[in-house]
Amino acid sequence: DGLESNWVTDLSVGTDESIWFSTLGGGIARYRNGEIHSLALPDESRRVWALSAVEDDRLLAATSTGIASVHVVEFDALPIDGFNHEVFDVVTDAAGRIWVATARGQLLCYDGTHVRTMVPAGETAAITTILQDVQGSVWAIGHGASVVTPEGLRGSAGSITGIQDALAAQDTMWFATHDGLWSVHEGDLSRYGMSSGLSDARTERLARDSSGTLWVGTRSGVARRRGNRFEMLTSADGLPHPHVIGFEIDGEGDLWIGTRDGVCRYREEQAAESLECEWPLPPGPVDPLFIDQS
Asked: Is the bond leading into 150 cis (omega within 30 degrees of zero)?
């Protein structure tokens, strides 16, 4: 259909309702008016891990050769000293600073003039994800998690390893890991496992719906938080497959659940709940899910 690689790593929606795809090996593509157009990228930059929307309908792209600016048909590598290594993630904070996670384990911050090394190479395993919490702190997430402010490294949640997903929710950070679900609240660590109602201690995906409920994807169903306990929904409740690998919330507040073999929608109306699986898809895993502007 026009994609130069079927390995899609990230999606972003533009103000003109176009959808951008980053891929491994195929660079970046733009979907608009039913057509896909690929951008001409240098061969060495065609491995793209993440996209981050910025002003003027531009994107920042995390590529195998550093950071690039993307706009419609333009792809311009940013000539910023220190950004010439493979980059796994890039975000722009409320102050306009660019935060970059590199394959060397670095977390870099660019304020428009200078690049600062916030987490040095080799101090942690490769950082794959950057999140910003409501206090403005940045979380550098890989095998473990470190919290960073613009003033420098603030601390590390050293007990949390094997992180699969992370979520910033109000004043709490949540981490899905191979060893249960963890939360960090005002510096305090808490772990939730099978004794808390989870049917599997290996948690993989997180979401928070419009009512504030936390949802957790595991290999044996999806869990929702009720107080400090979790209730499970499984194949017996209508999941097309027990291994949950993706979540998305649509504009009506319904929760879409991607599994190892199909997708379903959870909706709650007038104190009744239902799991709907009406969308025949080719066999196989569904992740990620993405909601467009319609």
From this structure: no
